[in-house]
Model the fold of this input.
Amino acid sequence: MSLFIEDITLSHFRSHRAVRLELDGRPVAIWGANGAGKTNILEAVSLLSPGRGLRRAAMDDIARKPESLGWKVRAELQSLHQTHDIETWSENGASRTVKIDGKSAAQIALGRIARVVWLIPAMDRLWIEAPEGRRRFLDRMVMSFEPRHADAVLTYEKAMRERNRLLKDMVRDAHWYAALEAQMAASGASIMQNRLMVLERLKDAQDGAQTAFPVASLTLKASDQFGLPDTEADLLAAFKDNRPRDLSAGRTLIGPHRADLAAVYAAKNVSADQCSTGEQKALLISLILANGRALAQDFGAAPIFLLDEVAAHLDAGRRAALYDEICALGAQAFMTGTGPELFAELGSRAAAFEVFEEAGVSSVKDVL
Done:
């Protein structure tokens, strides 16, 4: 079984006034000069999954300027032998609307029919940036397995914001905290269990693979000295016991929002943040591929990969290895680069498009 986009149309989406790509399930190589609009195509594809897309952009920022008419993405998706028509759009900066097969749907419904994972240049600093970026990276992988994880995260964060407001106002009456902490404990336990499940799935996917990319040993740890409880009972007790310290700080100091993802280059036993830039990139690619292998088993088809400028820092051997793994998975991967030479190792295994800009408008040409 397979998962791929057969047809996608972008309307007034960033630099693209109107673009349509007709595809056949093969990987997709997209090249062009910097700023031509390549990444905008990948961003449009990312919005076929729940969330704010690979740039986490505000809806109004996506709309093409100066028209500011709003934007729309429509796609025909082949998913596990079923065809789905997906539309998503936003007008006047409002929250985006989703329709699946002509019927209004919640964003989470996208995760039931399509799995999309991505690697973008902004992630290259993942191992040396603040823990928030690594949590977001991990939670994105979790959502590829369990779309409802997004609801647990939203419930937890909403309750925590209310608790933090009480803490800043120096409210000491325990009754004000009880219901909020119960919500945080229940949703927080779900978050932690989902994260730990995915780390185990990634471990299995890496251990059982023949790959040219290094294995990353992953662990979840606390980003500070307060520990990382992972059950509902332990979280509830931690929130209660930590109230005096939280009151002093004016915020919640313990819980899933303080988790950090640690990675070790297994073959060298070196922490990822101490690895070279090339090794850090290779570890990221390894995790994205492991994510794809595990999803192929769980979902029944490999996810759609979005790999922005992925070949830029890979030598020819590593590029060939990456392309071979993507093709072996049977995955549709959208990959961008500045020139066709970066995709030479793919040959006829990929559809190819050139993106160019004229008078501020991006256009796409099918390269035969």
About this structure: The chain has a mean pLDDT of 94. The two ends are 27 Å apart (CA to CA).
